[in-house]
């Protein structure tokens, strides 16, 4: 089966303070995307597509892309910023990033963040689903909230409601702290430790691009374009509500490792080093 791994790497990294997508996490200089692509290829994906900003493309390809090109068929997509209002520099968000791949991705595909480590098993789950998925039959991997927090500041997570193994609803929470309290539009909400959350590991069929285009058109007419973002959770929630899509949920008990803050680097370096020492990676 032909299937692509779409890696969202256009984030600004403002809380990290640099190009965190390319930051080395192993002694030989590899970054998180190197290990994600390795895992995805092992699971059956045969192409990697990196979504970048124009101003970071050259550096990313030099620091990361050239290595990955030796492993797998690789393409680069620029997240379009031509429609940003004057004064806004931040891209419109994760769902818009996926939409920018419309002319490049023609097969079923998985989506991940460049700065999150998901674990080998998660890619196998998504790839197996995509092998037989019909249009509108999507998938995601949900992690337990307690396993996805950073000791160094707040994190953003898609809080999921799951019914009979399928996603019923999902809400983006952009400020969750270590005691699992979320500031959602000015309301403080206490979340349970085992709350299933999205880390943006999704499996989609190519029909999603038409629906995303319609959702984005609505977004541009109704959102505050100076600050709002077109997130994957809100777009998928609307598709489910309209009966356009179903989302099979694979639940993982694995601990999250990733880079939101520079202080997160020590934990991910230790874990990757452990995996290399145990023979999981060369």
Notable features of this structure?
282 residues, alpha/beta, Spore Coat Polysaccharide Biosynthesis Protein SpsA, Chain A, nine-stranded mixed beta sheet, two-stranded antiparallel sheet, 7 helices, 29% helix, 28% strand
Give the topology.
Layout: E1 4-8, H1 32-43, E2 47-52, H2 57-68, E3 73-78, H3 94-99, E4 109-113, E5 116-117, H4 120-132, E6 137-144, E7 155-163, E8 166-176, E9 181-184, E10 187-190, E11 196-204, H5 208-222, H6 232-241, E12 246-252, E13 257-258, H7 265-277
Parallel strand pairs: 1-2, 1-4, 2-3, 6-12
Antiparallel strand pairs: 4-11, 5-13, 6-11, 7-8, 7-11, 9-10
Helix pairs in contact: 1-4
What features would you describe in this structure?
- The radius of gyration is 18 Å and the shape is globular.
- The chain has seven helices and 13 strands.
- The model is unreliable at 13-17 (pLDDT under 50).
- The two termini are 26 Å apart.
- The chain is 29% helix and 28% strand.
- Strand 2, helix 2 and strand 3 (73-78) form a beta-alpha-beta unit.
- With 282 residues, the chain is of the alpha/beta class.
- It has helices spanning 32-43, 57-68, 94-99, 120-132, 208-222, 232-241, 265-277; strands at 4-8, 47-52, 73-78, 109-113, 116-117, 137-144, 155-163, 166-176, 181-184, 187-190, 196-204, 246-252, 257-258.
- Helix 1 (32-43) packs across helix 4.
- The protein has a single domain (4-277), classed as Spore Coat Polysaccharide Biosynthesis Protein SpsA, Chain A (Alpha-Beta Complex).
- The strands form three sheets. Strands 1, 2, 3, 4, 6, 7, 8, 11 and 12 form a nine-stranded mixed sheet that branches. Strands 5-13 form a two-stranded antiparallel sheet. Strands 9-10 form a two-stranded antiparallel sheet.
